[in-house]
Amino acid sequence: MKKLANVPEVVDGKEDFQAWIHAYLVEDYVSGQTLGDYVAENYPFYPEKRAAYVAKSLQIAEKLCQAVAHVHAQGVAIGDLQADNVMITEDGEVKLIDFEAAAELAQPYDPGIMTAGFSDLALENYEQTDLYALYQSIRSIFLPISNRARASWPMQDLNLRQYFSKEVGDYLENLRQKLLPKCPLLGKENDYGQKEVWTGLNELRGNISRGIKADWQSPNLIKGDLPLLEDLDQRLTVDNGALGYGLLLARWGELAEKKKFLAWLKKQGAEKITAAGLFTGKAGLGGIVYELGDKAWGRQLIWSAQGNSADLSLRSGLAGIALAKIALAKEEGLAKIAELIKIGREIAAGYQKMQTAGLLTGQLGAILALWKLGKFLEEDSFKKEAKNGLDAWLEKDLVQVDQHVFLAEDGRRMPYLANGTAGLALVLAAIAQDELKEDRYQKIIIQAAETLDSFCSYMGGLFTGYAGLMLLDLALGRKKALGEKIRLLNNYLLPKEEGTLVAASCGYRCSMDLAAGASGVLLLLEGIARNDASLWLPLVQTKNWRLF
């Protein structure tokens, strides 16, 4: 920092001193916000505010390039340049604030700390590291998503030019070419040797399918998202574990693959599963094995799934169990009416106490199940309670921003399937399709559809990512919107010769699971091919009944 004292874009150091065993550094206070916060607060997901954002952000990008050049002119590399280490002052200037990883430009790159997506161990020295991070930081201003893999850049750039701003696409390519002589990694792996055209639906399905590699000797079977790595109990769940792949096989697999999966399940002791939920236990496992061909086992699992009033959710509780039992009853013509009535009463009595609103773990999932129970059982009291609860929730908790609608969770406006607008809209659409005269929800459904016509979301998966935003388009038959979103879905895909991979939570790894990875994306695309918005649910499929 002493070397950089005369660089105007670097925060000024005041003094450093020792107190007991601690070393302290005193710096100027910089009033403003980080580049990451600037993007989060101002990013134009919709076209109406895009021109002003692009103009201001290109100015910031140029100032950031100038700042890095000034630092490098002093023989210093920043070392951990990324959006949260760049301040935008109140008058729009750039200040660099974090130099704990700083080094000499030519020093071989050996990071003590690094930020995923903004660095790479293949970089040779600290000058290259800064230039790579500079490009990725500027890229994140215009495409703030978790997938920053170089293999995805060609499709991302095509989408930026077509759906966001041609000026931005050209700027990023010119910047890459400018930095390339000093940072060869910006051009490695033939990333820009790919033909820049969108892949059609059928080819995209085939490519993602080839990218899923099952390891039949592994107790995990698939490479999953972070929850699978953190908790062994996730191995046999539908959302994060191997059952998501099993659901995909049930919908798409060849007969031999289905038999192989059933054999693998029994080898893993799936008969001993105790959890009951739709995405976590017997109810979902039953729906999957039923469709894989073992109807007796599937039937036994679904009817034996018993929840309790402590968990009313769609993901793991009574709401999901109820829907599994209804789907089976619709297929086979037999139902345990008394049990379904009991479940309905427990949901009616307790759903308003649920702490969250979202479809998978909150009130909306319980309301959906209560409505479907009322419809199936011809129990008007359940239907009335579902509508009353939904109306009360809409009046109290729906967040309106301009013409867009959101669920608010922990103060954040959410668009997602699991906990946001997409889940809400599907519930409204499900009720509206059952009650043809029910048109009071149509305005919100239309607003929700416009809300989900976003250029991007941070992640790409089904539950809390871009793929889940497409289900409402599918349910409503919005073919043009679906076509555009299929192209934008490429932002989260990594095309490889051996098959396309799907970047999962936070972009830390690729995943093959349902919630965040390839199985979920592929089930969505299969649903588009079949015109079925319910394929992602592990419910017994029947011609007589569809949830969405």
Structural notes for this entry:
The structure is a single chain. This protein is mostly helical. It contains 20 helices and 12 strands. Strands 3-5-6 form a 3-stranded antiparallel β-sheet. A hairpin with a 2-residue loop joins strand 1 and strand 2. The model has no long low-confidence stretch (mean pLDDT 94).
Short description:
Helix content is about 45%, strand content about 10%. The chain is mainly alpha-helical and about 550 residues long. The longest helix is centred in the first third of the chain and has 23 residues, at about 50-70.
List the helices and strands and how they pair.
Layout: E1 13-19, E2 22-27, E3 32-34, H1 35-42, H2 50-72, E4 76-77, E5 86-89, E6 94-96, E7 103-104, H3 126-142, H4 153-164, H5 166-179, H6 201-211, H7 226-230, H8 242-252, H9 255-267, H10 282-292, H11 295-304, H12 318-332, H13 337-350, H14 363-377, H15 380-397, E8 399-401, E9 404-409, E10 412-414, H16 421-434, H17 442-451, H18 471-476, H19 479-489, E11 493-494, E12 501-502, H20 518-530
Antiparallel strand pairs: 1-2, 3-5, 4-7, 5-6, 8-9, 9-10, 11-12
